[in-house]
Amino acid sequence: VLWTTKGYTPHAIAAHPDVPQFVIDRTQQALINFERTVRGMAMLHNMKIEGFEAAQDSDWNDVRALNINLLK
User: Fold this and answer.
1) What is the distance between the alpha carbons of residues 39 and 60, in angstroms, rounded to a whole number?
2) SS3 for 62?
3) How confident is the prediction along the chain (72 residues), in pLDDT tens digits per residue?
4) What is the pTM of this model?
């Protein structure tokens, strides 16, 4: 290990502004409920993901504060 940083908010799944809100809502609920089934839990385990949860845009302010502009 060369450097250890503090933890940051994990990756987000975002929707394009053109996607209808009902599609966003249904997809969000499907992801959140994924861990409630045996098959879903097994798939999440294989991907080393604990689960999904709803979030707000402001939850990523810690990442924005890094001011990373590599893709601009």
Assistant:
1) 30
2) helix
3) 898 988 888 888 889 999 999 999 999 999 999 999 999 999 999 999 989 999 888 998 988 888 888 766
4) 0.70
